Amino acid sequence: MAMWQGAMDNRGFQQGSFSSFQNSSSDEDLMDIPATAMDFSMRDDVPPLDREVGEDKSYNGGGIGYSNRIMDFLEEPIPGVGTYDDFNTIDWVREKSRDRDRHREITNKSKESTWALIHSVSDAFSGWLLMLLIGLLSGSLAGLIDISAHWMTDLKEGICTGGFWFNHEHCCWNSDHVTFEERDKCPEWNSWSQLIISTDEGAFAYIVNYFMYVLWALLFAFLAVSLVKVFAPYACGSGIPEIKTILSGFIIRGYLGKWTLVIKTITLVLAVSSGLSLGKEGPLVHVACCCGNILCHCFNKYRKNEAKRREVLSAAAAAGVSVAFGAPIGGVLFSLEEVSYYFPLKTLWRSFFAALVAAFTLRSINPFGNSRLVLFYVEFHTPWHLFELVPFILLGIFGGLWGALFIRTNIAWCRKRKTTQLGKYPVIEVLVVTAITAILAFPNEYTRMSTSELISELFNDCGLLDSSKLCDYENRFNTSKGGELPDRPAGVGVYSAMWQLALTLILKIVITIFTFGMKIPSGLFIPSMAVGAIAGRLLGVGMEQLAYYHQEWTIFNSWCSQGADCITPGLYAMVGAAACLGGVTRMTVSLVVIMFELTGGLEYIVPLMAAAMTSKWVADALGREGIYDAHIRLNGYPFLEAKEEFAHKTLAMDVMKPRRNDPLLTVLTQDSMTVEDVETIISETTYSGFPVVVSRESQRLVGFVLRRDLIISIENARKKQDGVVSTSIIYFTEHSPPLPPYTPPTLKLRNILDLSPFTVTDLTPMEIVVDIFRKLGLRQCLVTHNGRLLGIITKKDVLKHIAQMANQDPDSILFN
């Protein structure tokens, strides 16, 4: 043992040894990713992988002695074998094969006894039970976040003396001194100037309210960024780029762990309440996926299989969007269209069930007190007209232009943050952006209110009783037909609101570029929708006034008669919101479904589809990547996009390693290498696995073995059998030849050998190789020529080659 330890010390083998896994998290947090600077020391306090090793002190090798001198200790699974290192890709094929073997074993045993049959039924039912728990937990957390954020947002402007836990709206609900015209004013609600200087009028009162608004915003932002920095660096950002990467098979420990869930939930409330130009919808997907990952550990089927766990995470993402927008069907389609890498039919059903339970839970909590799942639910009753497709398409063009502009500028700013000193001071950056946002936001009532309330105001279809400035029209009519108000000339309030909304639009466009990507939870759905909704409302009011004053024009007189309600500005706001969100994210089908679920009517699907497709076409013409794909590439995550076609005429031999003039491929032989030889190879290389060949001369392929499995198996053998020494021969064959007496016992490691690795010939076109990697989720593929092993192609090599063919920096792929 001393010689073995010395060999490890001399060759730096400790970094890859099994003991080094003791400090990493177990499968409980097998996904967690650095959202900012990758903190490799970030681990949850969970039992080590080798918690079972050495527990059975009486183990003597299972009858393996010097008589047959073959140590085959892998008849029973060793803890850690078959698992993955951090920042590595899972083997989808192996995981699915293991799940089929497990299911086959359970099915066969179910015929033997009643208890085994019950176990089989519970195993089949466990997936649905897990979906139920995910829906309940994510819906409950979403309700808690909504209620807390609403209260803390109002806290910046005042407090309820009748009960500090009431927000502004709830405070005035039960008041006997509130009028309908001023329903937001009641004696129980006091602004900070009323509490501090006992008056709400005059310049000094305005300054006091201004100061308290900025102070609260800075306090909330400081708490949010501090908690993220100290306790859970992974809790920043929206989380969707990392979740897409994890669902593609990448391992990021801690990203979906307990601490990330707790800190993300708390800091999301603080970040939204600070008034920054961000939303909670994207981070809610991250929160739901954290719930899914944590609950997976209650079920062996999902705890021990990474591919099955990713099916659960796809369903959790659907539940997250369901509670974010109150759109269960849209959530399922979002998971399918935008984030999921592998989405079988069974996952579709379970995603639908999880989204349904999550929406029902949120509806039961009723966080907004209006029996709706979102604050900006609206219903329009006026039909749209064919001519209006022209302004709808114009909104789509605006959304595409805004999306392309935002992606380019935001990525440039985030790259500057990563490559300069700016990234070293996240707290200062957040406080500066918060201060600028709060100082510019307070004078304008549309920037002072929360973004969700602003969108609700913009979507609103004006009625007779609306007291908003956006509904300050001159009433020049005697009756209204069917309860619908005719188009009316705009009053002073509408013109004032138009100017304020124009200023709000400029502020939102600029400040969102610098806000998204800071080290706090920040979603992009709501700010993008706000930009589009403002532009849409401005265009809608313009069209409404044009139709009122110029009814004789040919484009209006055929369908817009005198005294009719022809134009609905709120509909334009909704179409604009969909266009801008589509331009930024490149969503299409799921976006349209989410928007019509918000409005409660199918009548406006065509305008939404026209705007969404136009915005995607325009944005794609200016840049192929959506915001999430752009951030994946910026951070160097190994994500192989399934939507992009590989159209270059290169061959496998052009990409494989080793290249010409490179050192020969590092291989293991099936029956001629000692433990010391293998240890030397492991300590001198950083490869994730090694091909096994018959001999170095023949180079005939036998299989492929993973580095992690080798390390764990060798160390486990040394612990359980004293006779294993550095000169012991390792066999990957089924049978070993007889050995002379008094030679050290051999190690038989055939059970950790993949006997069917994927292989291609050296003349295989790379477009086929790329398709194989995409559709099968491979980690590596071996290259042969006439049956002889030539080289290896890894997922990283494929990503580098794709980047090189696209004239991008191939070294931007950071992870193996």
Automatic annotation (TrEMBL):
Keywords: Antiport, ATP-binding, CBS domain, Cell membrane, Chloride, Endosome, Golgi apparatus, Ion transport, Membrane, Nucleotide-binding, Repeat, Transmembrane, Transmembrane helix, Transport, Ubl conjugation
Pfam families: CBS (PF00571), Voltage_CLC (PF00654)
SMART domains named in the record: CBS
Reaction equations catalysed: 2 chloride(in) + H(+)(out) = 2 chloride(out) + H(+)(in)
Signal peptide: none
Family: Belongs to the chloride channel (TC 2.A.49) family. ClC-5/CLCN5 subfamily.
Subunit structure comment from the entry: Interacts with NEDD4 and NEDD4L.
Name this protein carries in UniProt: Chloride channel protein
